[in-house]
Amino acid sequence: MDVLLDKEKKVLSIKFPQDIDVKDFKSAKEQIDKYPDINEVKLDFKDVPYLQSKLIAELIGIKKYSISKNIKLTLTNVQEGVQQVLEISNLLDHFSIKRDFGSYSPHELSYLLLDPEMNDAVIEYIASNFDENYAELLDQFFVSDDPVLIESAILIIGKSHNYEYVDRIKSFLDSPYPNVVRSSILVLGWFGEDSCKEKIYEFLKDEHIDVAEAAAATIALLSDENDSIAIKEYLSSSDERLRKIAIQALSLINDDFAYKFLVEHLKIERNELLRVQLAKAISYFNKPEVSDILLGMLKEDSLKIREAAASSLIRIKATDRVDQIMELVDDKDVWVAYFAVKAIGSLCKEKRCSEQLEKIYPKVDTQVRIAIIEALGNIGHDVSEFLFQLLEDPNEDIRKEALNSISRMNRELAIESANNALKDSSWVVRFKAVEILEELKPDGFKDTLKNCAKSETNRYVKEKIFSIVGEL
């Protein structure tokens, strides 16, 4: 058993052997006793493929002991076999489980790079801890025939800012592997390699979208006053994919020319998805007329375009357009009204907005009513009396949203309403009631939920209750 003390951070790391036994847990407890000033204990299971059931009790004992000492306990590098035992024993939620790459040799980390779920984290770790040992490992990656390892090496170089590798990175622009080319393009952009820009332009037309998007991002990083003009030509292409890349590149370049070209193109672009992209792209420019352009797009026929326009208005915090947006909340087109209400709920925090939405509530379609209830919760002005009436509405979605919005403005009424809603005919409403009680944690709420679980018939509501109070 290996033991390492980080005196500065007051962290004790204990690495268990492959043939872990009861004596190892006893030794771990003795080690904890030796260092009374520690704040955290890390138990490293990197070499432990499986835990026998008799050892689970020992692990729980360590957990209880650490709690009694006010010491944080963390399990690191838990293998699948150990994790399954903890899951079967319903103990996963009782332990903090993390990955600690410091326990792995460079050679062992190379295998973890091949795991898609770990690749990004391993790259970040090696880049942050780059030294001669990792440099030797990357040299092996560069001459391998595995595109994942080559790509990882390039990204590690980029994230660790090792500019001495720049010529080698350039050479990989000619790689037959798209992921390798993409990573090379990105890193050359991070390095500010203007000498490669002309070659990178060629990749805007690449058949692999990831490569083309990387080229757009890098050209934006390397851009000067001529690049917007050059990329504008791609907007007139008959290839929708190429127009998409051009829009992305211009939004990233973000100069006056780019803005002008995107606004002009909005007038003629007919593809729905590209108009959605244009709504987002134009919103990245700090121009006073952007809000008006997006307001106009709220009235387009496409639901996707309307949603993009509403989201963009929210993103740019167009609070100066609240009055104009409010004019659309009772539009005869249900979806224009719906997205207008969504925008109001995010942009306005004034009492007048709540009052206006409450006033038009009876006049609008059910979908818009639900959006109004949600918006009232976001605005935050206390209209809980109005919402309380809606808890009797025949529509379960309205009752659910009303309950949720009350919880955001009136704690006492929310607790009362949630307790009553535990008997609602809809499991969706009952589930929301349980969530609210869990969040607000009124006195005795766990006992209330335990009693509720005895008569609850819906599986999802029961599981939610048990996750809070434990199995009965």
Description:
It comes from Calditerrivibrio nitroreducens (strain DSM 19672 / NBRC 101217 / Yu37-1). This is PBS lyase HEAT domain protein repeat-containing protein. Residues 1-125 form the STAS domain. GO terms for molecular function: lyase activity; oxidoreductase activity. Keywords: Lyase. It is built from 27 helices and 5 strands. The protein is flat. The mean pLDDT is 93. It has a domain at 1-103: STAS domain (Transcription Regulator spoIIAA, 2-Layer Sandwich), CATH 3.30.750. Strand 2, helix 1 (22-34) and strand 3 (40-44) form a beta-alpha-beta unit. With 472 residues, it is mainly α. A 5-stranded mixed beta sheet has the order 1-2-3-4-5, with helices on one face. Helix content is 61%, strand content 5%. The two termini are 39 Å apart.
The CATH homology group name of one domain: STAS domain
Radius of gyration: 29 Å
N-C termini distance: 39 Å
Low-confidence stretches: none
CATH architecture verdict of one domain: 2-Layer Sandwich
Number of strands: 5
The share of residues in helices is 55-70%
The CATH class label of one domain is: Alpha Beta
Structural class of the helix and strand makeup?
A: mainly alpha
In short:
This is PBS lyase HEAT domain protein repeat-containing protein. It holds the Pfam family HEAT_2. This protein is mainly alpha-helical and 472 residues long.
